[in-house]
Amino acid sequence: MSTQHPGFYYYMAARCTERRRERFLAALDAEAKQHLTMTAPGFSNEKKVEHHAIILELYTRAYELFKAYSPATIQGQGRLTPWITYRIAHTYCGSGKFDMAAFFERIAKTYRREQWDSLLQPLLSTWYSCARKMGDVELSVRLLIEMLGHDIRTQSDDPDSTQEDMLVVLKSSVPSTTEETLVVDSSDSQPILNSSIIFWQPGAIVGEAAAFQISLMARENVSLFALPFSSVTIQFSADIPPIVVEQISGAKESPMKISPKPRKTPHCKTCQRPRAGHPRSGCPYADTLAPALDSSTCGRLESTESLETVLPTDSSIDESRGRPRSGKPDFIFQADVLAASTSKPTAIVVSAAEKSVVPHSVTTDSNSPPARPSTPKSDRPPYTAKTCSLGRTLSQDKQRMFFERARLTSEGSVVILKHPTDGVSDLLARAKTVGLAAEVIGSLGEDSRLVAFGRDEELVSKVGHIGSSEKEAAVDKVKKGCYRALVLGGLGAVVGAVATWTALAFS
């Protein structure tokens, strides 16, 4: 038969004294509610007892014995030592000696490291009560942020109580120093936001830029709607400068700005195409290069946002004529993929009104390499303008990427894709499964179809019913210089916003 060391008996004596104090407080509360004076000798003597002093003495003695007799490992009896330390700090807090509750800091480190959330959560609540009563602003903010990560409420019946307490502390309290920014290191605690990252392509070549997407979302049970975020900094482990996303106050559209800009897509020095997909052995197009083009006639996409074709949904007022516009969408387009001459690039209509902003511009860069597709076969004249048709459909991965981008467009936007006739039915069926409206709006010969995608089914339907007379009128005005045109030059280059996705997917 084995017996425990004396520390266990002191610990149990302290716990029994806590129960004794709870019963005394219950009797005291009953006396106050009944407006009666209890004359029992035992109750009168109990009023003179300093329960907190007895509890502290017993816990302290138990702590000393546990340290002396417990094994060095964190297993078995050694695990009870931090718990006794927590009870000592809790007793100090209950007795009003908030400055003496310094044990919380030491215990919290152990519980965070070992992820003892069931013990850490009540500790954080008690610790925050001490910090608030001491008026420690910095400590209160640190604890409230950590409590948000653990979904700890300062008031159990109010899910927004923790963030409301933080706003009260920040607005009504004065920090000890105003010269330094308060930095809260939460690397050892639970984050207040869930983060996830995905790459848009399943593979990448070493040394090339790879597009990725970072998602930051509030946790399911954590309320953060009242807390303002001014900026988010994304740090990288390599020698890459951080990306800072800043909140622009008062902005109605595009409220976030990103700095610095993403790196440009690397191009092959031989064929001037994007290097993505090139084998390491060399350029697969080296033997069929197209003649060099004047860089002034070539363009490059500044961002993938050029995939959007914006259709206004409201009946706006024509300022030039002073009367309401018709309910038809005022976007007129010419859907075609042309081979442009090197001397004169092909223009395509983008907007049907001078006041209407071109949804996404294509800029010209004299320093960027010319964007050129496949060289025509040797039996064809090199500068003959012909319609380019694609010989294959979108792969599953590219369909998925296309649908993801289409779903991210605004409700007043429509994305138009030139697709081979084979596979259009499968494309329409898959679009419905991801919640997109899709409709074939035209054809480009026997082999290609124009398909419109969008979140608004009515807008998608309207795109296919734009009258041919309106198109011809718009083309005539473009030739007269009335409207701005979206231009991409180069042999066989995809021209205009109508087919920009095709250029990205199959160039």
Describe the 3D structure:
There is one protein chain. By secondary structure, the chain is α+β, with helices and mostly antiparallel strands. Among the domains are: 6-172, Serine Threonine Protein Phosphatase 5, Tetratricopeptide repeat; 396-479, no CATH class. Helix content is 34%, strand content 12%. It has a four-stranded antiparallel sheet. Helix 1 packs antiparallel against helix 3 (51-69) and helix 3 packs antiparallel against helix 4. The longest helix is centred in the first third of the chain and has 29 residues, at 6-34. The termini are far apart. The model is unreliable at 252-256, 288-392 and 482-507 (pLDDT under 50).
Secondary-structure topology with pairs:
Layout: H1 6-34, H2 41-46, H3 51-69, H4 80-94, H5 103-114, H6 117-134, H7 137-149, H8 161-172, E1 193-199, E2 212-218, E3 231-234, E4 243-247, E5 256-259, E6 309-310, E7 317-318, E8 323-324, E9 347-349, H9 396-408, E10 413-420, H10 424-433, E11 437-444, E12 448-454, H11 457-463, H12 468-479, E13 485-487, H13 500-506
Antiparallel strand pairs: 1-2, 3-4, 4-5, 6-10, 7-8, 9-13, 10-12, 11-12
| The CATH fourth-level homologous superfamily of the domain at 6-172 | Tetratricopeptide repeat domain
Helix content: 25-40%
Series of H and E elements? HHHHHHHHEEEEEEEEEHEHEEHHEH
DSSP, total strands? 13
What proportion of the residues form beta strands (DSSP E)? 5-15%
Q: Tell me what the CATH architecture of the domain at 6-172 is.
A: Alpha Horseshoe
Low-confidence stretches: 252-256, 288-392, 482-507
Rg value? 35 Å
Biased composition (Polar residues): 301-315
Protein name: Trafficking protein particle complex subunit 11 domain-containing protein
Domain Trafficking protein particle complex subunit: 4-149
Region (Disordered): 254-283, 301-328, 356-384
